[in-house]
Amino acid sequence: MNKDTAFYLGTKEKNDAEPISDQPTFHLSYAGALSYSFEHHEHRQRTNEELEKAHTLSLKQDRKSRIVWRLLYIEKRRQDLLDYMSLYEKKHSGEALKVLLLCVVIVINLSICLFLMIPLLPAILLTAVLLYLGFVLYAKYNAPDRWHSRGRMAYWNNELFELQSEHDELEIEKEQISEEIRQLEEYLS
Length: 189
What we know:
This protein is mainly alpha-helical. 73% of the residues lie in helices and 4% in strands. The two termini are 33 Å apart.
């Protein structure tokens, strides 16, 4: 048994039990009773095929939501990796300068010793050789692929590549599922 109580907004005539027609009417439903909007709803009987399509639609919508959450995770992880890489490069950017200064100090000290111990021409030649070796050492140490081919940077680069490939695959799958969902919604409506 449905017990709805009607509430009328505005003023009510003293002896008039009918609502004023231009005032909205609100209905309260008690525990266990259907609300007014569902009580007068016309239920449409669906066929087994339509029920199966509706179930498939809900599964595809669930899959799409999981894909979207995974894409959000991938974006967050990608941003974290880029932050790690920039901090790592910032931390190790001064090491090349340290190596250059070390090479300069060693070359200057050795060339001073050479000029004090041996004649002028061999000392100049040995100093030139030391300068060349110092610059080769610095160039080898500061090679652009040195930091990217070893250790953490290589791991992070590989992980970024894997995340990008997974992101691309998920985007394609999301587009396919979105199209299938659109077709099923058109069929069911």
